[in-house]
Amino acid sequence: MKPQEYQQLVRENQPPRRTWRNVILAFVVGGSFSLIGQIVLDFVSGVERTTDEASAITLAIMILIGAVLTGLGIYDEIAEIGGAGAAVPITGFSNTVTAAAMEFRREGFILGMGAKMFVIAGPVLVYGILSGFLVALIKSVVLGYF
Amino acid sequence: MQYLIAFVVGGLICAAAQLVLEYTKLAPVHVLVGLTVLGAISAGIGIYEPFLQFAGAGALVPVSGFGSSITRGMLSEIKRLGWEGLFTGAFEITGLGLAAAVVFGSLMAIASRPRD
User: Fold this and answer.
1) Mind telling me how many Å the CA of B13 is from chain A's nearest CA?
2) How many domains does one find in chain A?
3) Under an 8 A CB cutoff, do B97 and A60 touch?
4) pLDDT value of residue B107
5) Residue span of the structural domain in which A100 resides
6) Any idea what DSSP says for residue B5?
7) Is A116 on the interface with B (CB under 8 A)?
8) pLDDT tens, A9-63?
9) Would you tell me which residues 33-92 of chain B have a C-beta closer than 8 angstroms to some C-beta of chain A?
10) Hey, which residues does A89 pair with through a beta bridge?
């Protein structure tokens, strides 16, 4: 068999790419989490005065939802279907924290759960704070906030 | 109507992230970091605020909204406190959720039976 023929055979027997199916599922699952978030946000906005407070409480409630769904083993199933639709919402952030805590607990509470809880969420925090710090610093200097 | 906008906008951000995952070799955590940084920077430039007004939770719930909350907290704390806000502000809005993630994550880990 020639190399070209072999390549052809490999291509033909590859599982079909399900790109668009995955993208649509990500849209639906991510959209659903946002919809739930909107219901929470509307409810919280009725109680809290400022938008910052309402944002904070909404994020925290979504994080609680993500943690509980992870604890019950449901988030894994959602992530299987939704891909980025489950990872990108803040519930996914919460999922990475809870899942890491659950997984590394058997390595001990200090060096396992404590040390590795933020193994995936950590980079998000670090680079979110660094980039936020940088733009906030530049904006403050340019606009003379200090 | 606000529910539809939240669904569509939040869904589109996730669909875009899925497209990046499908067509590049990036790991999900790279995409999450990228989105967070994008949110944090666009909040500093001032474009995330109107986006939040328009899309509500559709802009807040994706992790880019988390990034924007870091910068929004910093900017409002800078106006209140001065330079200290650059540091304390990071957790002004996100702190509640972060502590919640630690507390609830730990509770779930303790409550669940360890798997091996």
Assistant:
1) 8
2) 1
3) yes
4) 96
5) 3-118
6) H
7) no
8) 888 787 777 899 999 999 999 999 999 999 999 999 998 778 899 999 999 999 9
9) 33, 35-37, 39-41, 43-45, 52, 56-58, 60-63, 65-67, 69-76, 78-79, 82-83, 85-86, 89-90, 92
10) B62
